[in-house]
Amino acid sequence: MTRFSEEAWARNLAAYEAIRTMPFNAELAAGTLSAERFRRYIVQDAHYLIGFGRALALAAAKAPDPDRIVQFARGAETAIVVERALHGGFFKTYGIDAATFAATSLSPACDHYVSWLLAAAYAEPYEVVLGALLPCFWIYAEVGRDIFSKSAADNPYRAWIDTYAGEEFAQAVAAMIAATDEAAEGASPALRARMHRAYARATQLEYLFWDGAYRDVAWPV
Hints:
Elements: H1 4-11, H2 13-21, H3 23-30, H4 35-62, H5 66-88, H6 90-93, H7 98-103, H8 108-123, H9 126-150, H10 158-165, H11 167-185, H12 189-215
Helix pairs in contact: 2-12, 3-9, 4-5, 4-8, 4-9, 4-12, 8-12, 9-10, 9-11, 9-12
């Protein structure tokens, strides 16, 4: 049987290509993305990482064996550590203090993504939760590598690029792919189909997240 990850990547390749070439990432690679757009993105990303950490913690609680419990518990810790690093690094660069961050509400895209992800993490079985979590890991790694291959050394967003194109993140992604494939091996066809639906929806939400930051999509009322 074809591995779940291979099927999922092939089925969602058009969506990944749309993400890879969308204006936000094209301009990020070129170093021409406006500071205001990146600032909007990084604030929402910090909000998202808190929710992502909670979802990973729920995956740990549902994991069937100790090794996976440790993997996802550590992933939850890493998500929060990265969120705090944003406060200490990018937030300082862009003049965002704790009060400003706390007063900034989640954008429609961020709110949708976090709410959907947490609902899946609470209500869905372990296998589907992994299908929902995988795109955030995998797409960021692939986008990071693609941008790294094209960006100049003096790109103003080099720190972000290096994080997601780096070996440490690549190892975390490989571990997530392995865990998801492992979970899918014993899944029934119906459960595997639910994993694919979760993966596809998370991929769509990844696009909306970047696009919302680029176009400054806010609540209309």
